[in-house]
Task: structure prediction
Amino acid sequence: MNKIREVIAYKHYFEEFLKVQTTKVQDKIFKIIEAIETLERVPSNYLKHLTGTDGLYEARIQLGSNIWRVFCFFDGDQLVILLNGFQKKTQKTPKNEIKKAEQLMKDYYQDKTNEHGN
Result:
């Protein structure tokens, strides 16, 4: 399959989230990442922009009645950066998880500026 995007994880947050999931959940997460990498238009049940944020998306994983979310964002058109993930227990995405993701997104751009700017 042809990749039209690259998905990378920023720091260790995604990996830590992934490690504690069951194999079934991990497989599902990888399927969604593959969809993000290969589909021209990623369906919104897989990837959805978070209203009220500056370019933050959530990758949506569901198995039975269990729901997980992984925050991510686009750096340009071809690069998707994965941030923190969590299991969703309530209707609304917890504000603290969104805040954490927004902070990580800031950190990412800060790091990038520092790398190119010294």
